[in-house]
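Intended use. Records like the one below are meant for learning the mapping from a protein sequence to its folded structure. Do not use them to infer anything beyond what is encoded.
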Amino acid sequence: MNSPSTAAPQVSAAESIDLRQSADPRRILADRVRQLYSQMPLAIVGSFLISAIAAYELREGRFVEIVVFWAGLVVLLTLACAGLYWGYRKSARKIEEAAQWLRWLGISALAIGATWGFAGAVFFPSHADEQQVFLALVISLLVAAGIPIYAVSWPIYAAYAAGILFPFTYVLATFGNKLFAEIALIVPAFYLLNVGIAYRLNGVFDSGFRLRHAYGKLTEDYTALNQRLEQQLQA
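Structure written out for the chain above:
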């Protein structure tokens, strides 16, 4: 039996194991990318439906042609994202090309955010009070909804939310209304809060992926050890 003095160093040594040394970084990255792409169908459908509702609500205004133009951008972006998702699903080199697929996903997230940032910057000043409240609510909903979708990679979420909020914040600050200018001071804090949440969730996901691969590797090592022991006993 181990005495307490000898058991304590064993526990501390076990707790000091670094999961980064027990898991393949390429497979960790591939897991993160797979998780992100698994969220894409929900993101594509949700964004398209919200865009359709927003286009219908904003159709009455001074810039109907711009609404039509924005709706066309949304359709093209939806098709591009669907093509990206289809290409990833058909890829036979998901692990080897994980970094490239992650970059493409980051570009698509930034494009989605910039499309909504364009909507906020152009449509907010040109519509009545009720439609301004509606647009502000939609933008807030989209920023918050992006956390569970892109939290596996917080830089992607940060780019997505920045594409939405930065143009909208500029419009609020320069609108000429004191209340809107004060709200514009709050928006950066809202952005940093959401990015901070995404950063923490990113760490949780990363630890989970590493732990799963570490235990998988440990199981393989024990299986190989048992097979060697069985062979030695049979010999």
